[in-house]
Write a structure and sequence with these properties.
Blueprint lengths: L10 H15 L17 E6 L9 H13 L4 E7 L22 H20 L4 E6 L4 E2 H6 L1 H4 L6 H6 L3 H8 L5 E2 L7 H17 L5 E5 L9 H6 L11 H23 L4 E5 L19 E5 L1 H4 L8 H7 L3 E6 L15 H13 L3 E4 L13 H14 L6 H12 L3 H20 L35 H4 L5 H9 L2 H13 L5 H25 L7 H30 L22 H25 L14 H9 L12 H14 L2
Parallel strand pairs: 1-2, 1-10, 2-3, 3-6, 6-7, 7-8, 8-9, 9-10
Antiparallel strand pairs: 4-5
Helix pairs in contact: 2-3, 8-10, 13-14, 14-15, 15-16, 16-20, 16-21, 18-19, 18-21, 20-21, 21-22, 21-24
Length: about 650
């Protein structure tokens, strides 16, 4: 369970108890006592760890450090590791010599290179260097050599073959990977190995100040009896949730003790919020102000200008909270291009002015992108200015882009701004989607479902911080069903409240998406044909327009379905009964669903050929089961297209291809 799924009904009681607990514990004396600076003192830049240990990339790393330091960051987070010690510890003289996953010569080079880079970073003003790791992995060689300890009777084999991140397990067995996940904190050998390895790593890397780990993905405590019986059908049946929470507390307590002994007042200890139950944090045996929780800011998943309320809840307990964010590489609409200096500045300054630290992840590279991508560099410059409470103005952005795109810079910037506006609106219509992955992203993992338009009943205030000024789809439908006069009266009220209806939002989205394509084409015409990523930026705008048309069609189908008395949303309401609403828009719903699939198929083809920064799609074929179920619930027949419209596809391909010729 994630921190942000804390129920509001329990927040008030927890707040009073938390205040009492914090005031009691803050009086304790400890090694960290004088080091507790406010969260806003910590401006963290995350970087890709492997190159920091690669002697061939020394100049690249130092250039990155220079840029990070100049932009106001004072902490660097290295990651993401699965089991960091195996890259830096010489196990040959320990009681775990069979844990040596890489050669001793490589270990020595890793230590020497990363220490040189760490020292350089601190010379440049970086105050803390921390590592970022997932929890409960083990070097493959150790796991393989001690099967009687880590997989007795092969009881974990089927679980590892099916559980989350089973790809890492299979990769290790195939000789390509190097770790096995889902190790058990309750296993005394694993616990001892982890602790001793962590202590040794801190000894050989004295410049490493601490950890910002994720107790996630492979950190579950499992029921070994169920594994032995081998009757389970779904791997999650084996999880012992209460024991996982208890072991999390013990794990964090051990990290705190290790760091206190190794680093004293300089220690830095943080945990990502994934799968952590907030109420158990009160069981930690050290004051909460010696601890950081990094929570996923709205902008991590998609462009959202404000942060979620769960950060304030944690902050009220005395915990220093870091907002963990992506900007340029936000998971939606990644990998499409977007940028707006006003929007990004609002994002960063909202966080700082609210008393949070920041962990910024755009120095890491996702997919096929490059560190010197001009739009990435532009976003970094804008974030850096905002961190200093300054503004990177639009004219500054134009000047920056002129170095790459000449006279095309202004139009290119306009295109990116229009995409940002369209997606900001798109996100406001789908508050429940905020936690649900990237089903709406081009080539995304999931499929669209109607619950995404609704308020999440598990969320604080129904995710109003996402919806903001947009009238909810259900509120709008209910108003339309009460007749024209009532709808007109509501429209007047909504306007006085400065709220916008779903129809007004989709109209703006369509206009912005169309103008974004026009601006991108003008930019291409005015720029050098050798300008970096130029065709990608045009393709991004074209794909984005199809994304907007797809999402508008899906919203129109939802409006028609609920207006016709439909209840089913694919998550919160599973009733397939159609209520009598007095309105029949079933035909409109079917037409909109067909239109949704029409644009989705175009997106898939364009992604396979032109997807910016990541070729192809993660799931190029969709079954459209939800679409078919909606039709069946309404008692309607639907025949979905199975291939992209050839005429329209050729038209779009021609736009992209001729733009840079």
């Amino acid at each position: 369970m994630s921190l942000f799924k804390l129920q509001e009904s329990r927040c008030l009681l927890k707040f009073f108890f938390g205040v009492f607990w914090v005031l009691t514990n803050l009086s304790r004396q400890n090694a960290y006592a004088e080091a507790a600076l406010p969260a806003t003192s910590y401006k963290i830049a995350t970087v890709d760890a492997p190159k920091w240990s690669d002697e061939r990339k020394k100049e690249e790393v130092r250039s990155e450090i220079d840029r990070i330091a100049s932009q106001g960051f004072n902490v660097i987070s290295l990651g993401t590791y699965k089991f960091m010690p195996m890259y830096f510890v010489d196990y040959s003289t320990t009681k775990y010599p069979d844990a040596q996953q890489i050669s001793l010569d490589r270990v020595k080079k890793n230590v020497s290179t990363i220490r040189d880079n760490m020292r350089y970073a601190k010379q440049k003003g970086i105050e803390y260097i921390v590592s970022r790791s997932y929890s409960h992995y083990i070097p493959y060689q150790l796991w393989k050599s001690r099967q009687n300890v880590f997989n007795p009777g092969n009881i974990y084999t089927r679980y590892l073959d099916n559980a989350h991140q089973n790809d890492l397990y299979k990769s290790a067995l195939a000789g390509k990977g190097d770790v096995i996940g889902h190790q058990q904190w309750t296993n005394p050998v694993y616990k001892d190995f982890f602790i001793s390895s962590t202590v040794q790593m801190l000894q050989v890397l004295p410049e490493l100040d601490g950890f910002l780990n994720a107790y996630a993905e492979a950190a579950w405590t499992l029921d070994e009896q169920k594994l032995k019986e081998d009757q389970w059908k779904v791997w999650k049946e084996n999880i012992k949730y209460d024991e996982t929470n208890a072991n999390f507390i013990d794990y964090v307590n051990h990290l705190h003790r290790i760091l206190a002994e190794a680093r004293g007042k300089k220690a830095f200890l943080g945990i990502r919020d994934w799968y952590v139950d907030a109420k158990i944090l009160e069981k930690l045996d050290f004051p909460l102000d010696e601890f950081f929780i990094a929570v996923k800011y709205g902008g991590f998943d998609q462009p959202v200008a404000n942060y979620g309320p769960w950060g304030d809840t944690l902050k009220s307990k005395g915990i220093r909270v870091i907002q963990d964010m992506l900007v340029f590489d936000a998971e939606h609409p990644h990998p499409l291009y977007w940028y707006d200096s006003d929007f990004i500045t609002r994002m960063i300054q909202n966080v700082i002015h609210s008393g949070f630290g920041i962990q910024y992840q755009d120095f890491q590279i996702k997919g096929d992108d490059k560190a010197d991508n001009p739009i990435r560099l532009l976003a970094q410059e804008t974030v850096g200015k905002a961190l200093k409470n300054e503004k990177f103005e639009r004219k500054d952005a134009v000047t920056f882009l002129e170095k790459y795109y000449g006279k095309g810079a202004d139009n290119l910037l306009k295109s990116l701004e229009l995409v940002t506006s369209a997606q900001e609106d798109n996100i406001k219509t789908k508050p429940a989607w905020f936690w649900q992955g990237d089903g709406l992203t081009p080539g995304g993992l999931g499929t669209e479902r109607y619950y995404m338009f609704l308020d999440n009943p598990e969320a604080p205030s129904g995710m109003k911080f996402i919806r903001q000024e947009v009238v909810s789809l259900k509120e709008y439908v209910n108003a339309t069903l009460k007749g024209k006069d009532f709808l007109q009266a509501q429209a007047v009220r909504w306007q006085s409240e400065k709220r916008r209806t779903p129809v007004e939002v989709t109209t703006a989205m369509r206009k912005n998406a169309s103008e974004a394509v026009d601006a991108a084409l003008k930019a291409a015409a005015l720029s050098s044909k050798k300008a970096p990523h130029l065709q990608e930026i045009v393709a991004s705008a074209v794909i984005h327009q199809q994304l907007v048309e797809r999402d508008i069609a899906f919203m129109e189908s939802a409006l028609a379905f609920f207006s016709s008395g439909g209840q089913y949303d694919g998550r919160y309401n599973t009733s397939q009964e159609m209520l009598h609403s007095g309105v029949d828009k079933k035909a409109e719903c079917i037409a909109a669903l067909n239109k949704q699939v029409y644009h989705d198929l175009l997106i898939a083809e364009l992604c396979n050929k032109y997807m910016p920064r990541r070729r192809g799609v993660r799931h190029s074929e969709k079954a459209y089961d939800f679409t078919k179920r909606i039709a069946a619930i309404m008692g309607q027949k639907i025949t979905l297209p199975t291939q992209a419209n050839e005429t329209e596809l050729k038209k779009l391909v021609n736009i992209i291809e001729t733009s840079t010729k």
